[in-house]
Amino acid sequence: MTVQNILLSGVVGSTAYGLAREGSDVDRLGMFAAPTETLLGLHTPKESHVTTAPDRTLHEAAKWCRLALGGNPTVMELVWLPGELYEVRTPLGDELIGIRGSFLSARRVRDAYLGYAAQQFRKLESRAGDHRTAKHARHLKRLCHQGLELYTTGRLAVRVVDPEEYHRFGDAVAADPASARSLLAHYETAFAEARSVLPDRPDERPAEAWLRRVRAEFYDTAA
Predict the structure, then answer these.
(1) Can you give the pLDDT at residue 129?
(2) pLDDT tens digits, 26-60
(3) What Rg do the C-alpha atoms of the chain give, in angstroms?
(4) How far apart are CA 114 and CA 97, in angstroms?
(5) What is the SS3 assignment for 105?
(6) What does DSSP assign to residue 100?
(7) Residues 6 or more apart whose Cβ sits within 8 Å of residue 12
(8) 17: nearest Cα among 27, 9, 8
(9) φ and ψ at 58, to 5 degrees?
(10) Is the pLDDT of residue 221 over 50?
(11) 113: closest CA among 18, 221, 191?
(12) How far apart (Å, rounded) are the C-alpha atoms in residues 108 and 105?
């Protein structure tokens, strides 16, 4: 299915983190604007389009903003990618990148990143011996590290510094899934002891103003 009005799109996931190996999937994430008039009636359009082959997720602009304001680690990647990983980058997309800091808040970043990391831990525990155990372990470590960095510096470094360290950790956890518990506990303590540079609550005003500009831009493109 062709999705119109894509504002920002790029390669995310393992490729963006620098963790991809031969045979790894290439994941894409993006954001689109629904024609404004289609949002005004009884039946509003789909807020997300997800496809496989290729693996791509596209969220409508308002949904993306809601998820980002909630601290969602997956959607947040879209506005912190290295420049070469963007495949669609419009002026409105650039504006969104420019206000990315306003989506952040200490509690939501902490809860979201630790929550997603704990989710990866539960997956690898339940799938001990599964070929995906190492992958879940790598993402657990990545989420913990990136989340703490974002919490303490206000910046998200999508690409990891030492990919092989993550692969070694994944292999170790694949051999002994319980060994991931100590890493998760370490980061839970680190979050508790760290002082965040982020505000207590995100500032919704820039997102609201940006979204209104999007609606004005696409008012005349209704089907």
Answers:
(1) 65
(2) 999 999 999 999 998 888 899 999 998 789 999 99
(3) 18
(4) 24
(5) coil
(6) G
(7) 27, 28, 29, 74, 77, 78, 81, 85, 158
(8) 27
(9) -125, 125
(10) no
(11) 191
(12) 6
Backbone CA torsion sign across 103, 108, 113, 115: negative
| 10: enclosing H helix or E strand | strand 6-12
* DSSP category for residue 52: T
In sequence order, which ranges of 178-223 are alpha helices (DSSP H)? 180-193, 204-217
Distance from C-alpha of 71 to C-alpha of 163, rounded to nearest angstrom: 24
Angstrom distance (rounded) from CA 216 to CA 55: 30
The answer to whether the pTM exceeds 0.85 is yes
Query: For residues 95 and 61, what is the distance between their CA atoms, to the nearest angstrom?
Result: 13
More confident residue, 214 or 177: 214
pLDDT at 104 over 90: yes
Q: Give the model confidence (pLDDT) of 194-212 as tens digits.
A: 999 999 999 999 999 999 9
**Largest Cα–Cα distance in the chain?**
57
Mean pLDDT, the chain, rounded, equals 92
End-to-end CA distance of the chain: 16
* CA neighbours closer than 13 Å in the CB half-sphere of residue 93: 22
Provide the CA 91 distance to its chain's centre, in angstroms.
21
Spatial distance between the Cα atoms of 56 and 30, rounded to a whole number of angstroms = 8
Give the number of other Cβ atoms within 10 Å of residue 21's Cβ.
8
Closest to 151 in 3D by CA, of 201, 191, 202: 191
Record the tokens describing residue 217, joined without a space: 């831009």
Q: What is the bridge-based pairing of β-strands 27-32 and 55-60?
A: parallel
